[in-house]
Amino acid sequence: xxxxxxxxxxxxxxxxxxxxxxxxxxxxxxxxxxxxxxxxxxxxxxxxxxxxxxxxxxxxxxxxxxxxxxxxxxxxxxxxxxxxxxxxxxxxxxxxxxxxxxxxxxxxxxxxxxxxxxxxxxxxxxxxxxxxxxxxxxxxxxxxxxxxxxxxxxxxxxxxxxxxxxxxxxxxxxxxxxxxxxxxxxxxxxxxxxxxxxxxxxxxxxxxxxxxxxxxxxxxxxxxxxxxxxxxxxxxxxxx
Length: 240
What we know:
The chain is built from 8 helices and no strands. The protein is mainly alpha-helical. It is globular. It starts with a helix and ends in an 8-residue tail after the last helix.
């Protein structure tokens, strides 16, 4: 057996972990900056998922598909790592394939006057106005369930899987610090999922308020998830 093989596996794990972490952190930033710079948007939309209905649609889908690919490729040291990463990969793909719904009023205008509506719709799409390409309750329900489960799986991995240690090796002080951060990240993700659910189902009128609470909760959850993966990939807080 090639003695370099275990070392190569370690490098592959680290590269995948770092890639997943970078994509998670970058997603909301890229969507907002891209919409401002490329499509002259003058606002942050009420959720990350809603960027599907703007000119950043392809970017959103591409990042989610890339996340799904990297998570599918990640096996981890134990079978449970493979199982959870494959579940997360499947959920990321579902999020990309089943978008949240758009605004009914724009869809109605488009369908009632198809010929002139097509030109107007494409112009709005290019200029980052709200474009209801899909307005399906079932699709949105699937999207919301998949998004919540995706974040919960990542929280589970951060709390239970990333905190494990090799029983044959002593736990270093740096590892103890990493475990604290992993658990904090998991708690942040869980809080954001619960808070988003409360706003969506109880305080629905807050969703499109000026503060955009859903967008920021989703972003914070993604940044926590990305941070845990970057730490797991020894990008930061690695042992000397």
